[in-house]
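Just wondering, does anyone understand these C-alpha cells?
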Amino acid sequence: MLFTYIPLLQLQRDLYRLPPGPDRFQTYLRTMTDAYSGDLALPLTVMNPMAKEHVPAFLDWLLELDADGIAASATAAAVTRLTSEVGNYRVALVVCDDLRGGWTNRYTTDFDYRFRQKPYYQRGWLPTILWASENYSAERIGEEIGLAIFRLAYIQRHGYAQSLQECLTQESYAMQQVGATSPTLTAEDLDYTRQVLADCWDNSSTSFLLTALYGDPAAHQLGYSPLGLSPNAGLALATAT
C-alpha cells in the first residue's frame, strides 16, 4: 500500500479567516469540489464551515503542535508494515466540530467514519477525524492516523463490516496494530456487556449497532431502544479483545 500524507489543516484554518456567512460557505464548497467534474476533490465533508471561534482556536493549537508533521510521520511508519497490500491513498487530518456544530452528531458521524468510508476510499482518500471536543497529544494523533490506515487495510482484506461481530473484529484489529487502550470498561462491565450482546453478534441493524457500540447515551439521543449499556460499551469490547 502507498499512503501519501496531504496537509490540510492550514487550508481549514484559512477558511475560517473569512467572515461567517454565505461567502465562507460557498468558498468551502468550491474548495472541496472539483470545478470540472463536480466530484469531491478534498475530504472535508465532516468539517463545519460555519463553526464558531472554538474551531479556529483548535486548529491554531494543532498547527502550533505541528499535527500535520506528526501525522505525516505516523503515515510513513504505517506504510512500512503494509508493503504486501495494494492501493494508493492520500491521508489527511480533518477537524470535526462535535461541540457546537448543529449538523454533526458524534455517534452517527463516528459510526460512518469507522464503518462507512467507501465513498472516500473509492476516491483514494483516507480522512482522519480529530474531534473539536477532545484533547490530543502527539502520540494520540499518530494513533488516530494508524487506526485509520489499519482499518482500511482490514477492510481491503475482509470487506466492509455489517454485523456487530464484524464491526468489533475490524476495530479490534486496528486497535491491536497501534496499541490503543481506550475506550475501556471495568472487568465487571465488560462481562455484563458480553452477556447483553451474547445473542446479537449477527445483528446488522444500524440502530442496534449504534446502541451496542456507543451504549445507552447514543440510544437516548437518537431515539433508539436502550440496552442498558455504558458509554462506548461495544467499542470497549473491541479494545479488550
In short: Residues 138-158 form the longest helix (21 residues). The mean pLDDT is 95.
